[in-house]
Amino acid sequence: MELSIARFCCVLSSLLAGLVSGLEITSTGPTSLEKASGQSVKLDCQFTLAPEDSGPLDIEWSLLSSDNQKEDKVVILYSGDRAYEDYYAPMKGRVHFNSADPKNGDASINLTGLKSSDSGTYQCKVKKAPGIRSRKMLLIVMVKPSKPRCYAEGPTQQGKDIVLRCLSSEGTNPLQYSWEKTSDSKLLPASAVLDPVGGTINVRNASATASGTYRCTASNRVGTEECILYLNVTPPPNTAGIIAGAIIAVLLILIIIAIILFCCCRARHRRKYEKEICNEIREDVPPPKSRVSTARSFTVGSQRSSLGSMSPSNLHEYALKPQYDKIPSSEEYERPPSHPPLPPPSGAKMAGPNLSRMGAIPVMIPAQNRDGSIV
Q1: pLDDT tens-digit map of 31-69
Q2: What angle do CA 361, 366, 369 make, to 5 degrees?
């Protein structure tokens, strides 16, 4: 009951205000507008004044907030016979009064370079005491689709299901997608299934006839964009040949590795065998002795043994031994002979005393076997 009384009072006060003042907004155009981003729009707000409206004229355009908890944003003002067009920073330089002198009854404004953030409900409020009038308009700034990207999902092989996708990264919903084939018969495959909202076309059990050029068009109420896709459906790969080739390649690699290992092992055994042979030769052969020391030791030993066994009976045998049975000393070995020794005269025999006078040294010759060993 109280609510009904309050509504009645509001209506009555409005009627009284209308009777008292002659201020009226006369615009009858659409209250909802749709525009594309980048375009311009005129928000119409025409009004009339009566002789009774004697107060100062104030015009205020504001962008109403969708949240009741937030304040409305004043976009442009006219007060005191002056326009304030740069009042709202996000629209600075893009909003102007349609008339150079709004007090003549034209409070309309023009918005240029529209952006998606300009969408919302705008209110035109005209005040001239004692009258106040307002008008609301809904502006929807739509973004046309960006150039879509066309691509194929999955392997494009015969017998497979091929999915063609078309997607625009920008654009005001609702976006609609359409596909068409522009080559050959210009007919989509019979097994193709279209999704105009998701922008896909699913070609089931694709065949070679599905190859060709396709065009996708993305559109909304303010514009269209398109992209081109070339589809090439290829035969399935020969899996048996691929497997056989892989097996042969693996076998070849294993054979090469086996050959390399065999060569390495053989070279290693050869080096080891040569090293063992060298060690055996060094162990079996004693180190060589110098000729000088050998000759000296043999001469001294022979002299001692000969002197110890010297007797008149074997002196004659000693004298008959040839000269070359004497082992030369180190000095004689090192000094080359000046002339070859003369052989003793045939049939001549020399006695022991004569040999002693000649400087001969008695030497005992050890007996030897046929194989050369000393007895």
Answers
A1: 999 999 999 999 999 999 888 888 899 999 999 998 888
A2: 150
